[in-house]
């Protein structure tokens, strides 16, 4: 079945292959820089020139950056240099600021501030109805526990900062290199770095041990890619700055752009010895990268510390709060409003009561000459104190304890532990766990997150025959085969696996010339560079793809050994041969192919070419053979989501080459449009080629990625892939991980732009549609849709394209007025721009899958922000490199993939683990459990506090609204601390409705979290009315029982203190049994907590009511002997039992009806839990079937390099020493740089 693509009009849109800058200018930025743009086009001025007064660096001159012109005012008259030091600081507190800052942050919480005000009120004798310690003890406990948690978190940040700042490197001081810590490095210093050193700041590369100051760096910290990239120093610095004394005399002035977050751009000028030299990104070593394959190098510090690109690219650290946190705060405000209204009503009641009754009762005379209104005013504040437990102070500390425990469970989960890398899962925050159960959108990076960034040669087709499936040495197909033993080949890679023994037989027989030519082409046609170290060959590929192809040729007996500026040496089945390289026609995104022209040892001239099938087939000779069979093989490879590459060759006569060579030389020195001229010359020679075959490479997915995506999709979680990779590569991976399927209709940038433009035109032409609340869908019918869009199209669609600079500049100069043409595709105002963005988000959210490719770090964050803004959805971002940091910080939850890639993403994340597949367990198990536990905890917590507090309200009707409390003071103090806290804490920590296996088996169980169904205002008011009902029962049944009652001993038990004991005992038993009814997962600890809380209550009550403690503290303990006297009456025990029974019976009935008549998905799974668990055990016993790729017929446009290769480097000879030494015979092992542990 062929993949469908939505029809679209052809448009001259942006280039899909070009990645826009990571810091595209906004309107405001363009306004600031408009003066630069108004210069005449005829006299262009370098960008650095326009910044002469901006960022300037003087080499070997530390005093320069402290000149007055570079000082900026920080506070009042205190000034500081605008040049940042190299020390970084991510911690929040130090020894002096911890206490004041932490208290300030904690008192920004409304509840804490409220209880501080309450404490102050309780100190005032006239209105205090409760002792001050009833508020102080819980407040100090809350502040103390939160402060300790914050301190522990900050100490971890201190340790990390200290470790990084105290790394060492050599700095040039006083004419000599001295070892120094990173924190002491300053802008303008010259530093020396050695192999495997991390780069401490953004440096201008001056010289290195390699020829022409070439320096190889690994950028895993920046982009998660482990393939090496090269940087190169200027020719002048390479020749003049090799020795220590030369570096000490280096006094150049560097003028460059201000610090920014553009990882893909740098522009500057070096002024030295009365000359100027242009600088670009190829001359820069960025902080966070690692020196590889270079013994040493020297660099000049341009940006340090927080001015470096990696730190600037991190985005702002945002304080993240969960939806439940926000809802909880609103509910606390609601409770506070209710509290004010209730207290005001009771105060008014006291005013009228005192006028009618209180002032006339002689026994209530207190000797104070106070009016009824004033007494009502005092009563208001008295009730504020009495009913303060409606706003629960212990709620926040209990929530913190539960979150801490849930974070520990994530850390301890062995099923999220990656044994190969010894990497456990890590919850790096304790405040977002329940949000994991509400995720609606996941934004994922590709390289290193979905894939391993490891390419493997899987199959090939040569002369119409396909090789790679399990086959015997005789050519018989096998169902299952063993891997080929490559040990007979001298340079074989031990990790290379291939199952076709027949191909090995053909190579060894040397009968099929096409097969030999195929692997000879792979060993010759590439830009891989090789270096010999200690008898070992090390490959340095511009991309993992090329490394995989050269490695494959090596295993089949064609080993790339060495190259010079104009020769390539290989070993052909043990025989060494050297070929003269006449021309190297490098890959670029337009050509989608590369070629090499070689002179063979026998004098023949041959062109070898490899490239995407779409461009190779157009350039084949009409006489080429096996076109159809190769096409069929390509379709099969594409169905298996393998990345295909066609190989072909062409013999060239000497006369033809000489004629072409002259044209090539002319194009090489063209002053204008040189690249276009070269491409045209390349076209002349790359035609009438003969097809040899094609390769198929697998970009290995991480284990379990397709299954994880499928399971998350069943949980109604939408996954968007945001990657900097090429469109074809990203689309391929989309099919590999089953994010894209054959039955999806795919829409590209031009399609999306067309639909959005039509919607915008309709809105302009029909203003009525602006006021419509309901929107028409972009796609009708039941078809599945997917969106594949590039960064350039994203800018075009969202009006963030760089053409905006030219448009605004023309308007500023008055050459074109602002467009008012309703047919114009540009926004007329901010409202239109917002509507366009909202339309794009609506369209994308209608799709089953979205892939954004060639996007910058800033664009990744912008996409996340748009979904958060217009969908109000809970988002999660997951990535592994520094280019994902902004996205990770922008999302509600950020997840970092830890492993062989960099740690920047992990350091900025909220959760970290080693494999993408662990995401399903994090969300569907830990996230869902955390959400259910937190919701259950909050519902119950509000309930028990309402039930406890509102007894005072009912009691006020019988106490003249006098702010008299219904309980003993110590009971009020200890109720939330000792008597009712432990059972609900354990439910918040341990409860689970179904097991982890069933949570994964039934992803639909995740839906209530996305809908916020378990905790919302409806649940809150249910808890409120449940608490009101319970408080009514707890007050009025004992009240009725105490009326006109006589005890067994002839004494009336209906005194106030006995009543307080009975209501308190009924309350404790009721709330503890209520949490038992809400507990789904019973353990010994839960049972012990419920029974223990009741036992602790009675134990403490009998102690507090004892005569001994009354003798020691007569004013604090006034209920002497009440408990023992009251509770010896069977009548009162029957009252307690009746109260508890009537309180719980309606709850039991309602739960029974709901589980029987209106069961939820969770109830149904619970009911059949044993059956499902048995099925799960049976499935585990069965051997899992290997993942079978789907059958798709589509082109896999292969991109064998993410960027331009090393061709310029090779052809110029800059990578080779002036007098190369004779090459020693290499030893038996060859390594590729990306796979090496210690290069």
Automatic annotation (TrEMBL):
Biased composition (Low complexity): 816-826
One GO molecular-function entry: magnesium ion binding
Region (Disordered): 1-55, 810-833, 1172-1200, 1215-1239
Residues that, per the record, bind Mg(2+): 445, 447, 880, 884
Residues annotated as domain P-type ATPase N-terminal: 80-136
Top-level enzyme category: translocase
Keyword set, alphabetical order: ATP-binding, Magnesium, Membrane, Metal-binding, Nucleotide-binding, Translocase, Transmembrane, Transmembrane helix
Catalysed reaction equations from the record: ATP + H2O + phospholipidSide 1 = ADP + phosphate + phospholipidSide 2
Sequence positions that bind ATP: 445-447, 546, 587, 610, 643, 723-725, 854, 860, 883-884
Metal-binding as UniProt keyword: yes
Membrane topology: Multi-pass membrane protein
Cellular localization per UniProt: Endomembrane system; Membrane
A UniProt-annotated Pfam family: E1-E2_ATPase
Cofactor: Mg(2+)
EC code: 7.6.2.1
P-type ATPase A domain location: 165-231
Protein name: Phospholipid-transporting ATPase
Protein species of origin: Coilia grayii
